[in-house]
Amino acid sequence: MKTEVAIVGAGPAGSIAAHRLAAAGARVALLERATFPRDKACGDGVSAHGLAALERTGLGEWASQFTAPEVLRLTSPDGQVLDVQPEPVNGHCYGRTIPRRLLDARLAQAAAEAGAHLLEGTRVRSVERANGCPLRIAAEGVTVEAQMVILADGSNAPVTRRMGLVQGPPELIAIRQYLAGDTGPDKRMEIHFEPWITPGYTWLFPMGAGHVNVGTGTFTRRVHQDGVALKDILARFTSDPAAMGERLAQAEPAGPVRGHPLHTRMEDTRTHAERVLVVGDAAGLVSPLSGEGIARAMESGEMAAAHALMALAAGDFSARALAAYTRDLRARYAAEQRAARFLQRALHAPRLLNRIFRKLRRDEDLAMLIGFIILSHRSPRLALRPATLVRLLT
Ligand SMILES: Cc1cc2nc3c(=O)[nH]c(=O)nc-3n(C[C@H](O)[C@H](O)[C@H](O)COP(=O)(O)OP(=O)(O)OC[C@H]3O[C@@H](n4cnc5c(N)ncnc54)[C@H](O)[C@@H]3O)c2cc1C
Questions:
Q1: What is the 3-state secondary structure (H, E, C) of 5-30?
Q2: Residue located nearest, by CA, to atom 29 of ligand 1
Q3: Which fold has domain 2-66+97-168+263-343?
Q4: Which of 191, 247, 301, 365 could form a disulfide with 17 if both were Cys (CB 3.0 to 4.6 A apart)?
């Protein structure tokens, strides 16, 4: 099969890239190892930036059917509880919770409707490069010849790693489970920093009709070197009345625990090479503070599509031409990632967290800003402005 652009992976990054390219008239093959609808370990929290990307894909109305949490409950290491409830903007405060089983299937469908050739159940094994020639993408049951490839194969990035474009192990790891029988309040999401959870956090995101997505994330070295079992933390979180009150007393598992490591280091990834662009989690775009990555996956998919269109128009697929994509990506995310990693240090300092909570309980505007930063609705850089630091720490 011959095409102009082959895309490896139909998560949010790959499907949005395929959608934009196909909508602009390019020939695109979107290769996905799974068959939709498929589950994907995720908190299902789609931020305001993510909703904006869905809007640009013509899926704004479709997204509006999903739960829009209104209150964020934060619990500090020493048990202080803070409820943050901002005014809704465009019908939501903290974005929406959209099950990935539905979101990813809808995005892949949108790409196919725009004209992309969606190949499901098609695991890519290798991408062969020869100078100046089109690429050969070897997948189960098909070989695709393409002018360019966009690698959107997620945090584990099996193909991107095999091509030598990602160095170093992933920094974070997270798991989640669906439960049924939550007694609510059904628009209240929760984030917890109890001492047996940090460094890291646990979350409860309401999905509607008594269903919740609960999960926990931490540093991979804590799991691999210190032997911390994330499943035990999650089990304690959901069963401990001190953490959850009566909220989950009647709740039952509504699916398996799933998870995977998260690649948060864009500096460890070469996001372009001759005829190659890397997007989404594979590019190390997950926030080191919140673990959020859906919006960035979609935005980087849009950026890669724009650069691929320029390369196709100019017939120039050189690494030098495609470096402009990496420059755009860095301009958009490098400072955000640095700020998020700086703030991440607070996760190792329970006493500092307790002190910050005491401040936030007395300063509603500041609490709202921090809530938005934790959920990736606002830039982490805003917390590092001198005036904000003074308010937080004095
Ligand atoms: C437990 C957990 C909770 C999270 N919670 C949130 C949250 O609430 N909000 C948020 O914004 N982010 C969250 N994230 C991060 C979010 O899931 C990712 O940032 C997002 O999925 C990235 O999208 P992507 O398209 O880059 O990669 P993915 O969604 O991982 O998609 C990659 C796709 O590539 C396919 N693929 C892989 N290898 C191959 C191959 N060889 N051939 C063909 N196809 C292949 C996979 O099957 C998959 O469909 C969470 C992550 C975890 C683990």
A1: EEEECCCHHHHHHHHHHHHCCCCEEE
A2: 11
A3: FAD/NAD(P)-binding domain (3.50.50)
A4: 301
